[in-house]
From TrEMBL:
The lineage of its organism: Bacteria, Bacillati, Cyanobacteriota, Cyanophyceae, Nostocales. Keywords: ATP-binding, Membrane, Nucleotide-binding, Transmembrane, Transmembrane helix, Transport. It is a multi-pass membrane protein. The chain crosses the membrane at residues 95-116, 181-198, 204-224, 282-304. This is ABC transporter, transmembrane region:ABC transporter. It comes from Richelia intracellularis HH01. It comes from the Bacteria. Residues 379-613 form the ABC transporter domain. Pfam families: ABC_membrane, ABC_tran. SUPFAM superfamilies: ABC transporter transmembrane region, P-loop containing nucleoside triphosphate hydrolases. GO terms for cellular component: plasma membrane.
Length: 618
């Protein structure tokens, strides 16, 4: 009785406590059966009030939904006993008035049932929308905080699957699944209690199948959980394949590999289909099993309840109520199959989303803020060493100094660690040993946002977003004025070709800037960096993939914007860095030579050899 009143006074707390009891009592191997459910409720604490209201509306709707069988029993009671009926005992002896009163009560109950049905549907759907919206944003925000190493280990398609498909799957369960569970639970309490009150001698017949149904549900959960986890994994692989193929469609077409990719996609899709079918074969057997158990209770009531009515132990009106109530009690349990199917799919998705949210973020101290206007750009790499995860060291005990306002170049063969230095400077990765200082301050102690704000990076692999030319130039400088955008484009020698585009600065560049040439994309990226106006400029192979005309244009731009600005140029083309204030030569993660262009040629070492090869001397 205490549980009964507690449930109706605070359904949210009741559900949470029941979930916690279940998670502590029932286990399946190393993972707890209801652990994903608990993770979801822990996340949903901020929606406690809305969830409480939705639970209340679901329960009240089911209470009024269960009233019609009782009204039928009262109607039968009036027809049989007339002046001695239940309503007559309240002082209304006229049969017509008894039916009118019963009709009025019926109208009120039906109106209230409809009102609370509207309420619970609106509340649950609103809750599902709120949770999926905020969960997607939280997951995406968390994803952006993770180190680049995480993205190297996880495919883009799999992450998109979590942010989109898994969260949508969870939304579908919240939309209707929890309401179905609540209403079934309410039905068992109310109808089961009514049987013990009206006909305690036959109540056991009705209750008998329920423990077996619960046992069957738990058994199916053990069998279905790993199958649905496999389904979610397979759909992630399928999405990954689709994402990779769409990104590489130019390569696929150029190598005439359409048939090959069709076969690979068919293989991934077939694996997903097989995984889904394995789960479906098992889940489809759930409802037929429940029907057989329901049949036992229904037949038992017909026989034992009918005999009790014939012998006078149960009134005819009561028996008619019981016949209707047993259907209300047992038949909704067949919906457990669909609800349970939704639950397992949702919990598999919940685990994937929560695992993403629980992925630890690297500890950034970020306790020193930078005044960007006061940054001079003096950099020093002090005895640094670094290796990517599970790989040999790529930089070993390297030290180099970059004076403020100077242009230095870093050259070397592919794989020597040049670009890794840039990633370490921007703290895309953290050092294994040593330190990097900016204006004498260890960058580990600097605000990560401020550090990256004072560095402008132009790389070989330019990424433009699907949007207008202006959108891409102002990326990161979102409040820039039109005049500032045009000035940055002119400095990057991009204004001329931009004005020849169909809509000028409002021309849409397409995904990854595919409507523009490589040189045009590079100059827009340079304009973007110029508009940012950082005290430190990093050019990572910025001219290696452009034609001679574009390279000359970029060189003219660099001569203007590198004045009194710390500039780091990483290049394979030595002609682009011959005028640098200082040149560092790297090989196998170590600094082997350094000096000006002329001095390095005199040393007749690695740099001189590279210069001779590129100049055609060798």
């Amino acid at each position: 009785m205490y549980l009964y009143f507690w449930y109706y006074s605070n359904p949210y707390d009741f559900i949470v406590v029941v979930a916690k009891i279940l998670t502590s009592k029932w286990t399946s191997g190393k993972k707890q059966k209801f652990y994903p459910f608990k993770r979801l409720f822990d996340y949903g604490q901020k929606y406690k009030r809305q969830l409480w209201l939705a639970c209340g509306a679901s329960v009240l709707n089911k209470l009024f939904d269960l009233a019609p069988p009782a009204l039928i029993g009262v109607a039968v009671n009036i027809a049989i006993r007339q002046e001695d009926s239940i309503i007559a005992q309240l002082g209304v002896e006229e049969i017509v008035w008894q039916f009118l009163i019963l009709s009025l009560v019926t109208v009120i109950i039906w109106v209230l049932e409809s009102l609370f049905e509207y309420s619970y549907k609106r509340l649950w759907r609103s809750l599902a929308q709120n949770i999926q919206h905020n969960l997607r944003l939280d997951a995406y925000k968390h994803l952006q905080k993770l180190e680049l190493a995480y993205f190297e280990e996880h495919s883009t398609g799999a992450l998109i699957s979590i942010l989109s498909d898994d969260i949508n799957q969870l939304e579908r369960f919240l939309d209707s699944g929890i309401n179905d569970i609540l209403q079934v639970f309410t039905t068992v309490i109310i109808v089961g209690g009514a049987f013990f009150i009206i006909a305690p001698d036959v109540a056991w017949i009705v209750i008998l199948p329920i423990p077996f149904i619960v046992w069957g549900t738990l058994t199916y959960q053990d069998l279905l959980a790993p199958r649905y986890a496999d389904v979610r994994e397979k759909v992630g692989l399928l999405n990954s394949r689709l994402s990779n193929n769409l990104s590489g469609i130019t390569t696929i077409k150029s190598f005439v590999a359409e048939d090959y990719e069709n076969q690979r996609l068919a293989s991934e899709s077939e694996a997903y289909s097989r995984s889904n079918n394995r789960a479906i074969k098992l889940s489809a057997a759930f409802i037929p099993m429940i029907r057989m158990l329901i049949l036992v209770g229904f037949i038992g009531l017909m026989i034992f309840g009918g005999m009790a009515t014939v012998t006078g132990k149960i009134a005819v009106s009561a028996y008619s109520v019981l016949v209707f109530l047993i259907q209300r009690l047992l038949w909704p349990l067949t919906r457990l199959g669909e609800t349970f199917d939704q639950y397992q799919r949702a919990m598999a998705s919940t685990n994937r989303v929560m695992d993403l949210l629980n992925t630890p973020v690297a500890n950034h101290y970020d306790n020193i803020a930078l005044d960007l206007d006061a940054v001079t750009g003096e950099l020093e790499f002090v005895d640094i060493s670094f290796s990517y995860q599970n790989r040999l060291p790529i930089i070993q005990n390297l030290s180099l100094y970059i004076p403020s306002g100077k242009t230095i170049a870093i050259v070397g063969t592919t794989g020597s660690g040049k670009s890794t230095l840039v990633k370490l400077l921007l703290r895309f990765y953290e050092l294994n040993y040593g330190k990097i200082t900016l204006d004498g301050i260890d960058i580990k102690n600097l605000s990560l946002r401020d550090l990256r704000q004072c560095i402008g990076l132009v790389s070989q692999d330019v990424f433009l977003f699907h949007g207008t030319v202006a959108d891409n130039i102002t990326y990161g400088s979102f409040n820039a004025k039109k005049q500032e955008i045009i000035m940055a484009a002119k400095l990057a020698e991009a204004d001329d070709f931009i004005m020849k585009l169909p809509y000028g600065y409002e021309t849409v560049v397409g995904e990854r800037g595919q409507k523009l040439s490589g040189g045009q994309r590079q100059r827009i990226a340079l304009a973007r960096t110029i508009l940012k106006n950082p005290p430190i400029l990093v050019l990572d192979e910025a001219t290696s993939a452009v034609d001679n005309e574009t390279e000359a244009a970029i060189q003219r731009t660099l001569e203007k914007i590198t004045v009194n600005r710390t500039t780091i140029v990483i290049a394979h083309r030595l002609s682009t860095i011959r005028n640098a204030d200082y040149i560092y030569v790297m090989e196998m993660g170590k600094l082997l030579e350094y000096g000006t262009h002329e001095r390095l040629l005199q040393m007749d070492g690695i740099y001189a050899s590279l210069w001779q090869v590129q100049s055609g001397i060798k």
